[in-house]
Amino acid sequence: MNLACQDLLRGPKEDYLRIGAPLYEAAITCDWEAAKHILLCKPELVRYSITENGETALHIAATAKGPKLKEQFVKNLVSLMTMGDLEIVDKNHNTALYSAAAAGNTGVVKILAQRNRDLLTIPGAKGTMMPLYAAAWFGHYEVAKYLIDNSQGLHDDGWTDANRGWLLEKCAENDMLDIALQTVRMYPELGRSTMILTILAGKPHVFSKTKSSSVKRTFNSVSAFIGLKAGAPENESEALQLLRIIWEDIMKLPKNHIDHILRGPQDSGHSGSKRFFQTLQLKNLIFKHLDKLEKEIQNTKEGPEQVLQLKNLVIKHVVNIYDETQRYINENNTPEEDQPRQMQKFIFDYIMKIHDKTQNSITSEDQAQDLKGLISKHINTMRDETNAQKTYSSRVMFIAAETGNTNFLTELIRQNSDLIWKVNDDNQTIFHIAVKHRHEDIYYLLYELGSMKDMVTPIRDLDENNMLHLAAKSTKRKNLEDVSGAALQMQQELLWFKEVWSMIPPSYRERKNKDGQTPHELFTKEHQHLITKGEKWMKETASQCMVVAALIATIVFAAAFTVPGGYNQNDGIPMFKRNPTFVAFVVADAISLILSSASILTFLSILTSRYAERDFERSLPMKLMFGLAALFLSIGTMMVTFGVSFFVLYHKQTKWIPILISVFAITPAILYVLLQYHLLIDVYRSTFRGKYLFKPTKRVLFYENPRFQRMFPRSNCDQTNNMNNQP
């Protein structure tokens, strides 16, 4: 290991203040004139450490941020150093190139690599991280791209399957997908031993299709027509190409190996997850009560009341355990499907079994000792089963389903259709998860399963909830954040429930879960708060819009009797009755009055609605949409009325006056529409397009593959069949 000389730091303090400190300042500011003056007097200082961490002037300059002249400074400094000097490491075993890669200084990395290529193979961070991995770790794409292009296919000394796998994971985590793709093309087997599938499963955004140029599209079409290999299909993302290479390699493994990869690592404390520690704390809280129960049971005195004391002790601790665990769950805001809550349910179900057996099985006072033994036996059995329970919260398929990563799932299922039957720790399929998190693109895949969907939808989880129960549960707030207002959110929830209701077999629509609730009862309970919020939002919106509509109606009504130019005093007829612009004024004013009145009546009907659950599906949104549309049109026609009135009064040379006024008059109307039109669009989309929300327009899971058709043309198959049929 080539360490920097420590003489300057170990020597007299005056020497460091006179030489070392100025050299450090010159290096960090990339002031070559100051550094050159020092190095010409003492050229050996290029090998000296000028910090307590063992860094040389080159280390400092390589990590400098900001100075524009750092690359020139590094070039000048390197010219004074030998090949061995460039390999000097600090106390963390970092070379200057490694430090530059970690800092993202691409120019410095290129200068050092061109001077000494061996620097690319010297690991840093105590010998654990290659420079390329450091660049990927800190998200420096340009540095990472340069280093992998000059890494000789990751065959250099220092590269192993382990750190190649680390590199692949970090590139995927930081969306450096072209580098990750380059890596797996060289080493496709890396996907077998890394968390790359788990990482990709949680990144649905990287699977969005990329736009291709018209030239590229034409080239691919011609290549496909003449049978040439044209690379990746049009608009195929790098993430999808990466996934395909990894998954095709994994599919060569035995089934149990594939299942192990898809299942992911078992939950443990090493993962540091909040879920795990909450589960551990909850388990310790329950076991603390059980220890106390067991101790008190052993201390009960023999006598005619002993059996009653034992039963009362069990009842008391069951109540205490439930109260404290429920308080812990609520304080930590634990979602229904999280691991701590599942652990609570599992243990509490077992405790209730102990309670039932102790209350019903022993009635004789002579059997008090048997009762003690029964309680202790059940407590010990529950401990063993709880400790033996294994959970896997990193299952690849279910991470993808939870995040809505449809492209990821379809690619896996196309090559292994049995994956649709995989269940998680709660006995839920990916389609159950899709319903729970409201991912319609994944739910669409059920339509492609044919009659098999009737075997998937009735599957019940550990709480005996079927798919319709999951649709009945209120979804997380973030899944509805793109929907305007609580009323439209309620509409989306109703559409989901109605869709799953039509999908599930009729005999399961009224099945009860462990809590004794049918899906519809659960839906009503879970969405009561959303109905209340939806009613409040709808009334507030209608009230505010009705005020605007009433103001418009008042204005245009008054304008109808104060026409431009006034009336003829003899017959009471308007002076400009034959003027076309006056006719336009009258018509626009009448339309505005009619529309604003219609808007007022519509919003009034919203205020007086009953707000039943089913009203949110179509009735209320339709009223809101009609009211908003009428209001927008009444504002527009009111502005037309205002602008046209000036054209009636001003002619010829003064015509620029009404034109200018009309331009400025339309600005408030445009501004109002721009600020509020999204609400009208959301209502329209939710109401009219909602019925098409669950109707897929094309097949995405199983479709005709042109490449397969080129490999096995129908004509060739027909010829083969004819030959086989010949006598």
TrEMBL record:
Residues 535-648 form the PGG domain. GO terms for cellular component: membrane. It comes from the Eukaryota. Keywords: Membrane, Transmembrane, Transmembrane helix. InterPro entries: Ankyrin_rpt, Ankyrin_rpt-contain_sf, PGG_dom. SMART domains: ANK. Pfam families: Ank_2 (PF12796), PGG (PF13962). This is Ankyrin repeat-containing domain, PGG domain protein. It comes from Artemisia annua (Sweet wormwood). The chain crosses the membrane at residues 545-563, 583-607, 628-650, 656-675. PANTHER family: CASKIN (PTHR24177), PGG DOMAIN-CONTAINING PROTEIN (PTHR24177:SF472).
